[in-house]
Amino acid sequence: xxxxxxxxxxxxxxxxxxxxxxxxxxxxxxxxxxxxxxxxxxxxxxxxxxxxxxxxxxxxxxxxxxxxxxxxxxxxxxxxxxxxxxxxxxxxxxxxxxxxxxxxxxxxxxxxxxxxxxxxxxxxxxxxxxxxxxxxxxxxxxxxxxxxxxxxxxxxxxxxxxxxxxxxxxxxxxxxxxxxxxxxxxxxxxxxxxxxxxxxxxxxxxxxxxxxxxxxxxxxxxxxxxxxxxxxxxxxxxxxxxxxxxxxxxxxxxxxxxxxxxxxxxxxxxxxxxxxxxxxxxxxxxxxxxxxxxxxxxxxxxxxxxxxxxxxxxxxxxxxxxxxxxxxxxxxxxxxxxxxxxxxxxxxxxxxxxxxxxxxxxxxxxxxxxxxxxxxxxxxxxxxxxxxxxxxxxxxxxxxxxxxxxxxxxxxxxxxxxxxxxxxxxxxxxxxxxxxxxxxxxxxxxxxxxxxxxxxxxxxxxx
Length: 463
Ligand SMILES: Nc1ncnc2c1ncn2[C@@H]1O[C@H](COP(=O)(O)OP(=O)(O)OP(=O)(O)O)[C@@H](O)[C@H]1O
Prior knowledge:
This is Two component, sigma54 specific, transcriptional regulator, Fis family. The chain is built from 20 helices and 20 strands. It is an alpha/beta fold. A hairpin with a 2-residue loop joins strand 19 and strand 20 (408-409). Adenosine-5'-triphosphate (ATP) binds at residues 151-153, 179, 181-187, 250, 292, 332, 335, 368-369, 372, 458.
């Protein structure tokens, strides 16, 4: 097959003519009579991880024109090579579409050969781009950069982490991952699962701090119908969901003591007993746990069971904070820029030396997640080809929001979203102070759900 094409054009004759022509040339062709339908089809294909190779998009359509469609759905449409089709008088528009990520345009009426040639050129361009990416990757390896699953790094500290994780992937032992918030604990767990012989089975993540204590036992081990009010049918627990695969117990330090005993028993006996059931069920689950707390201290304080600690800590992996591995920062920036360029359909080429200086000097309390968020924000906000200090968050530039940074006006000054987010952080901190850190009470004060509070606390790096 020469490739998959989506034709978005309101003219029936044009759709028919192009379909006949392209199918004859070996393309698999889909058509959409309106922009809205076309975007939906492209989004569905993306979701299935099988994006169209090419999209032929008419510039002039009733309702929404091709150019606005491209502008508003850049992330979805430009994962394919987009070719605009313009009638006389719309060529300027088609040219400006190229600024929004279209590969080229063709003017109507066109000869069949013109379309075929343009598609061939687009395919060559795409192949060259892919080859370029492959060569860059190879070069990266030669320059001492390395990868584990979807993680990238350059520092010696991370090199040891990846080596240990690769070893862990070969054995079904329990792994305990330590590290601050956003250091990549879940990604390491996914990598271990993905490289293990359980990769074809699910990895089920559980946030131990996100499930109310009363529901935890039934969430983890399941329940029988009628075991408690609301148990209207039998329900499998997360252990059973992960059968044959991996259960990732995130924030294991948040597990209440009552559950710690039960978890220990399951790990030792390899079987679970759903709430309200008299029988146990054998399970084959590999457990990977993670924590940002110092579990040894928790054991000393009596907040974490020592026997469970030793049972989990068969093999431990400690993820270093980002501030201690600055050589990873430029590489991670590059990695996230590519990701967000691709996702958002942008073309930011890099980070200016002044911005990189600030990024290297910043202490990164939120570790890699904070850097990832900063890069996404900068890719969205920058008007320039490269990220400069003005598009970095004020926490990193050390400036007051709205104050000029190196002669530019910080865009955060007018950002309602940034202001609301800041206020959200302040209110959550106050509610937690007010309630002496009691999250249930704090969530009531804030009028949000308990899980929502926990996820917001994570976002604002509040412990
Ligand atoms: N070395 C890396 N390379 C690429 N991306 C990374 C790397 N480390 C972390 N990330 C990204 O940073 C973000 C945070 O990673 P992850 O969720 O694994 O951290 P975590 O330690 O589990 O965080 P938390 O403790 O807050 O749950 C993710 O979006 C992840 O993709």
